[in-house]
């Protein structure tokens, strides 16, 4: 009996040992889950501008085809319509908002067009506030910042805005947002120093507004002393870009009026700066302001806000429907029944290009690279 019991014990122990070996072998072959590393935050990369011809090649005709209204804009947009944001004022600068479709005549390349619609809708806005923080703006920065904040406070719930500063290059302090507190924080980060690359800043921020703005209507408010020194882009290239981007540019020049005028050696630096700002504004359908005293800045900002809200949207389907990359000059004539002399502002034209606009990644830097 003892021998039988001993044999049973040995067999049982052997079975236990075999089962143990089998289980260990299976567990060693099963794949092990690797330890998860913490998720990496998205890296923001610098947005660089390419050669103006390459950069703009895929752009839409004007800007009427790519950025459709996000919300709050009742106007219905056809894919072949050209949309013009049109400001009409009287000789005293007062907005005129009682005109009808019959009062507007549109010419494209001197050919009369059929106006499809004239709307007085208060369209939501994608706005860029761009502030010169070069060394020459040091004594003016506080009043400029306070005035920009007053403009931020006038934005509506459907509007969005970004804050950028520029010296030798443009820097994005706050990207598009509807959060007014975020925009105010961005204004608190302004600091002065360095040179002035005004033209580079205008082209970079206009491109950013067109590419990233969600609303159809887009505008820049640029505050500067107008002293252009360090830009790589030329004026003609900048005007072409803002026309293609369909961005209205409002320029506020805080100039040294004591140096304005001409001399034996030509225009003064102040006169050249003023003329440059006027040309940039008028070609985009915007407006230039030149406050003589710092305490005039709040009133200027109030006028800019009013101007942006007091515009018509004029739409027409062009008789020349070719998307051949050519520039089409636009002229609007107002013929009111009471024969008032009115002033009309809109963009000077558009480039008839098909295809969607290319998007670039957003980041904390908006730069204009030197054209090749």
Write structural notes for this entry.
The strands form four sheets. A seven-stranded mixed beta sheet has the order 12-9-8-5-6-7-17. A four-stranded antiparallel beta sheet has the order 4-13-1-15, with no helix packed on it. A four-stranded antiparallel beta sheet has the order 3-2-14-16, with no helix packed on it. It has one domain: 3-Layer(aba) Sandwich (Rossmann fold). The chain contains eight helices and 17 strands. α5 packs parallel to α6. It has 372 residues and is of the alpha+beta class. The longest helix is centred in the first third of the chain and has 28 residues.
Second CATH tier, the architecture: 3-Layer(aba) Sandwich
Mean pLDDT: 79
**Text of the CATH class:** Alpha Beta
As a whole number of angstroms, the C-alpha radius of gyration is: 30 Å
**Strand arrangement in the largest pleated sheet:** 12-9-8-5-6-7-17
Q: Largest sheet at a glance?
A: 7 strands, mixed
Question: Domains counted in the coordinates: how many?
Answer: 1
Query: How widely separated are the two ends?
Result: 103 Å
- The share of residues in helices is 25-40%
| Tally of contiguous helical segments | 8
Tell me the overall shape: globular
In short:
This protein has helices at 2-29, 52-56, 141-153, 180-187, 198-212, 235-245, 269-284, 297-309; strands at 82-89, 104-108, 111-113, 115-119, 125-132, 160-166, 170-177, 217-224, 248-253, 262-263, 266-267, 288-289, 312-316, 327-334, 343-345, 349-351, 365-366. Helix 6 packs parallel to helix 7 (269-284). The protein contains 8 helices and 17 strands.
